[in-house]
Structure formats: structure tokens, C-alpha cells
Give the backbone structure.
Amino acid sequence: MSVEAKKDHIEEIKTLLERLDHDSLRQLVAEMHASDIGKVLSELEDEEAVELFKLLTPEAASEVLLEIDERLRKTLIAAITPDKLIAVVDEMETDDAADVISELPIEDAKQVLNGIGKEDSLAVQKLLVYPEDTAGGKMQAELVSVSEEATVEETIEAVRRRSKDIEQIANVFVVDAFNRLTGVVSLDKLILAGPDVKIKTIAAEPIKVRTDVDQEEVAKLFRQYDLVAMPVVDYDGRLVGRITVDDVVDVIEEEIFEDFYRVAGLNLEERALDPATRSIWMRAPWLLINLATAFLAASVVKVFEGTIEKLVILAVLMPIVAGMGGNAATQTITVVVRGLALGELSLKNARWVLFKEATVGLANGFLTGLVATLVSYLLGANIMVGVLLFLAMTANLFIAGLSGAFIPIVLKWFKVDPAISATVFVTTCTDIGGFFSFLGLATVFMRMGLL
Amino acid sequence: MSVEAKKDHIEEIKTLLERLDHDSLRQLVAEMHASDIGKVLSELEDEEAVELFKLLTPEAASEVLLEIDERLRKTLIAAITPDKLIAVVDEMETDDAADVISELPIEDAKQVLNGIGKEDSLAVQKLLVYPEDTAGGKMQAELVSVSEEATVEETIEAVRRRSKDIEQIANVFVVDAFNRLTGVVSLDKLILAGPDVKIKTIAAEPIKVRTDVDQEEVAKLFRQYDLVAMPVVDYDGRLVGRITVDDVVDVIEEEIFEDFYRVAGLNLEERALDPATRSIWMRAPWLLINLATAFLAASVVKVFEGTIEKLVILAVLMPIVAGMGGNAATQTITVVVRGLALGELSLKNARWVLFKEATVGLANGFLTGLVATLVSYLLGANIMVGVLLFLAMTANLFIAGLSGAFIPIVLKWFKVDPAISATVFVTTCTDIGGFFSFLGLATVFMRMGLL
């Protein structure tokens, strides 16, 4: 299927839906990839989407449900009969089935678990036990394992037996008599070995994780060892599942976005398409904390009310000092958060980074301070006010670099609640730093008779 | 190898380096995974790292070089002889060889290209032609392809021949007499088919890309179709290379970080461990643009100098209004950027999102405005100043929601230069919006005799 040819499907499907031409629709979607059908469903009105979804075979429906967002998935699931839903879930891999079932109302979930095959039902129920963000929560029960005593021929036979149910087999796991994982054999090694060779002689040491390992750690191992699939073991080292790379890609994305959500003071659960009421309540707490810190910064300004009264131009220029600090801090925070996420920043070089960011802040404070002084002078401001601007901006961008690097690193080290926002603390530093340095110096200048 | 057991290597290696016990070191690193050796090298002092690196076999060295950052890679490469470098590059896959060679000074690059095998050299030179961020720049020449007329047995023989040079074969590509790609067969399908079956009867339609497709698009296809490896074709549809999922994982990360770098006004090339001078020059241009917009906002305050002179408390409270707008805008920008990156936001729902974010801004402006009024009243401010605060915050958070959603969406649509910072524009809106609404309303209140 070529990438270019897919674009017109949506129009064609809309026309066929209007004409109620179900036969042509069935034929058309039978030729489409699940992810393309998912895209079309997301672009249709809900009623149209339901109509189209009902025409899918259980197999196609099972794949399509994994390609759409949670809201649409719930809408479509609610629109089909319990029997159809059971047939659809029956077609899924166990990890996907567990994800879908965990979104169902409890009664529906029970009905589906009773309806699907007993073996699958047990496997899914086992998966439902693990927290979603651990290796156990990400793994699937589908895998090929053989005993250490098996030959290559027997192993190929095992692959053959399971190949209908399992996508991307990638490798075969070797276990001892107690089902403890002892080795791994990739399919290309399997193809190349003679049929009578004992599997354990060609097995490699597996890179594995325990069920309770955090998904972020799992993702790191996949990256580090360029894995396609990784076995998951329980506390006794017994093989209980495997994680495939496509699930890990989602985890990697999720983790990066979480970092920036934290920075911006957002609830990790919020999504762009959430209803407004949900977003309002999720964002309000952090805005109220921001408000408290804003009053704190304002109280600094209040101290210097007398100074401002004498020279109102200070009120005009002070937001420049505070604002530039905020901008420089945002740059630093973003670079540091990225470095922490990629593992470039560690205990070893944290002090160096602090020093570097403080230096960058100082240098750019000096530079932008000079420019600001020049501009304010050209706009007709008192030369001493320009000097003030220069000194305060240099000081505040230094504070921005220091706090912008220090606060995310400290938050990361102490593994503080992920909902903590670095920006709140850092902008409090740059607001207070900006107002205090600018207005404080102005007061000193006045006392010295310079202003 | 278990994850826990690796931690002590660094201490052991340092001790052995001090003792100059090269034999034990060779033995120790021979048992370690390349990515673990890379980690150790990154944590050693440069001199120690060079000493250890020189002890590695060319094969181990070739893998280790891909696991470390560019600075260390250059240091280590500079420390070994040209012959050793040639031996090391010779062990690499073509895409990695091309990446390493492209980092060398031109004379060294020529020497290495002449030194490695002729066939490899040609393959690498072909890869060097493609821009780094396209499918051509990400692909490797290593792949297994067979003619449409081949049998399964012949195909397995082809896999066997190439299996020493190629990691993660994953699938075999089927080509016609003109080397045009016509199909793909995964290894598990290959294992399951009888030896005399014609390969074209079990081949599937390939999901492929042309060499000039952007890496972001490539990553989308991998995600969409859960691929492990994807063939790359030239303008005539001829098979020229393949991209593996481990390279795509890096692309996905890179693309997300780029989005947030753009938001923060950072150069996409900057890294956390760059020297300070580099960071200073890279960040300065955006800070100067910020400075210009800050003066713009200040000029709004300047207009109301007379109003502030009459009531200095306005200068104390106005940063609260502007700052809260900035905070709310950051929340909106982050949610919208994520939605755009994940493809949740499209032309279809952009208007809805604009409306939603404006509503969220209005509601949270109302809420935080009420709280701010109450707090300012309790702190002894004039009741009418409190009303002013309430009205201005409601207006400014509405502006924040609207501009925070509108500007990233518009930038994305117009595919503006990736170095464009959404934050600059949005905070300009919230600064000006905050000052103008607060001070403008104050002036009106004064004229009406309310203040």
C-alpha cells in the first residue's frame, strides 16, 4: 500500500455511508490497514463512526480499537452488542485485551472475561494485577518458550504452532524445568542452526526485567541494548511475559511529555481534547499556587512603593528585568530537563552544569543588559536609570541560570511528586530577583544621590 | 547479564587502570555489553577513557563509539592510529560508519574511506549524500533481498550468508529484475513456509518510504504500523536501504524535544553539556528578541505613567496580572504542542480547541481573579482596586488561552522555521494584555471617579 494513495478514502467512505452501501464499505475497509481505518473513524462524526465500526470483522475491529483515542473507543464499544465485544476482545493480544477490559465498567468487564476463552481469560486477569506503568503492566502473555533440552527443530515447531496468535515473534525464550528464564534465541540464529542442535548451545544471556520494574527503566534498557522484544520474569525468575518495542515507543513519548507537563504545572492526565470543565479543574490548583507566588513577588515591589512614587519610570522598566529573567530561566530549564531525560546529566556533572548555566546567565545578562541600557537611553531615559537596568538584568539572568538549573536537578534527585512544577519555583526566583535587584539598587542610588 | 550486577564495574576498572593491569581489563571488558562500556567511558576522566578504549578490539570499539556523546567520540578517535580507526569503522554498519565519517576532518574521512573495503566504502559514500534528517540519512545499506523467483530455501540461504554482517535481520525484501521492491517477508513467515515454496507467494505488500521522506514522517509510519524495519527506495522504486526501529526511537525523542526547544526559544542543536560559550551565543539572539517585545510591553506601561503616579499600588499589582497570564499561557501551549505532536489536534478540531482554551482561560481567570481580589482586599487594598484586579485577570487569562492555542497551531500549519518560539509571541500577548487591561481599566475608573 503506498502512502500517497490513502488520502481519498475518507471522502469515499463518507459517500458510501450516506448511500448506506454497506457491501462496498465492507470491501473497502477489508483492504485498509487498521491504523488507517482508525484515522478515518477519528475524522468521522460519532454516528458515522459507529456505523462503520459495526461493519468491521471482529479481527479488524480488535486492531482498530487500539489505534483510536480512549473517548472514541468507549463510544464504539458502547455501541456494539456484548457478544460482538467478546468476539473482538478474543482477537486481541493479552496486553491489549487487559488495557481495553480495564476501561470497561466492572459488570461489562466480568462478562467479557467470562466470554473469552478460559486460557486467555486467566492470562488477562493475571495482567490486570500489575500497575499500568510497570513492566508487568506493559507485557503480553504471548511468547514462544521452549525447554533447555529442546532441539532447533523442536523449537521451530514451537514457533510454527504459536505463529498464528503472535505478531512479531522476534525471538524464542529458553526456560528450565521450573519455567525460569535461562536464555534467548533470535529468529535469525534459529534459521541458521542445524535442526539437531540443542537450543541451549545457541542461546544468549537474556536482558530481562522483573514485573515491578518501572516503565521508564524498561524503555532505557530497550534503547541501551537496541532490543525488539524483552522477557519479563517474576520474583522467582520465572518467565511470565514479554514486552515488544512498539509498546516501548509509546512509553518513551509519554515520559518525555510528562517531563514538560511537570515543567508547565499541568496534571499528567490532561489531554488536548479533554472537555473544558476537566481542564479548568486540573489547571486551577497550579494557577492558584502561581497566584500565591505572584503576591509574594508583588510584596517585594510593595516594599519599594516609595521609590517608585519618586520615579515612575522604574515601574515602566521593572517588568523588563523580571520578564527577561523568566525567559532565560525557561531556556535553562528546557535544556536541563532534556539532559536529565536523556541521562546526559548525572550526579557527576551536575555541579559543572550549575556553574555553566550561571555563567551563561551572567554573560547573557551582561549582553542584554547593555542593549537594554542603550535602548532606554535612546528612548530618553536618565543615564543612571540605564546603569540600573544593566546591573539588575545582569544579576537577574545570573539568578535565572542558577535557579533554572538547580531546581529541576534537585526535584529530579529527590524524586518529588511528578506533579511538581519547576517553572513555579524558578519564576518566583526570577520575579523576586528582578524586582528586588532593580528597585533595591534604585533605592540605593537615590540615597547616594545618583538618581 | 543482570541489571544489578553491572554497577561495580566502574570502581573495578578504575583500580585496574591505576595498576596498569591491561590483561585483566581486556578480560573484563570482553564480557561487558558495548553500552555498559560506553557508560563507563563517559564516567572516566578523558585520559583514563583513552587508555581503556585502546584496549578494546576493533569490533567492541566500533559498537562502543555509537554509545557515547560526540565530544568523547572525537576525543577517543583522535587518540587511536589511522589503521586502528579504519579497522574500527570497517566493523560498523554502513549507516553508523557514515555518521562517524561525517564527523571526521575531511582528510581523515578520505583516508578511512580508502582504507575500508571497496564495497563498504561505496555504500558509505552513497549514504553520505543524503541529508541527515531524511529516510536516506537514517537508512543502512545492510539488508537481505532476494529475487521474486527465489524459493524459501534459497531465501534462507541468503539470510545465512548475510547473518554475520547484519544485526536484527527481521525481514527479507523481495525485488524484481530491476531491483525494484515488490514485497516483504518476515522471518517467522519464512520459518513456517515449505522449502520449495516461491518467495513471492508468501510476500506481503511492503510499507516503504522514498529516500527524501522526512524523518518525522518515517517515525510516524513506524508507530502507525508497529514496524521493526522498513525498506527505503529511490525515485525509481529501487531498493536502496532499510531503517531499523532502534534508529527511529532516537528520531521520535529528537522530534519531541525539538518541539519544546522551539517553544522555549532554543537552538535545536544545543545540548546540556555544550560549553558555556556555545550556549551563550546560541541563546542570545532569542533573548534579544524577547528584549524587544519586553520594551514593547513596557511602552504600554509608559502610556499609563500618569495613572501609576496617582496610585502606586497599581505598579505593585500589575505584574500579578501579566504573570498569571504567562503561566496560564504556558499551560495551554504545552497541552496544544503535545496534541499537535501526537496528531490529536488537526484542522478538523482546531477551532474547537481554540474555543475550549479560551473558555478554560476565561473560567480560570474568573476563579483566580476572585481569589486575587479577596487577597488584595485582606491585605488592605482599596475595594475598587480589587475589582480592577478581578476584571483584568479574567480578561488576561482569556487572552492567554486564546493566544496560547492560536499561535502554536498557526506556526505548525504554516510550517514556520522550526527555530520560531511560540512563547515569545504568546508572552508578548499576555504582557501587553495584562498591562493594558489593568492600567487601562484603572484610567477609566479614575475618570469615572471610582478610584
Q: What stands out?
A: The mean pLDDT of chain B is 90. Chain B has three domains: 4-133, 145-245, 276-447. The domain at 145-245 of chain B is CATH 3.10.580.10 (CBS-domain). Residues 171 and 188 of chain B are 9 Å apart (CA to CA).
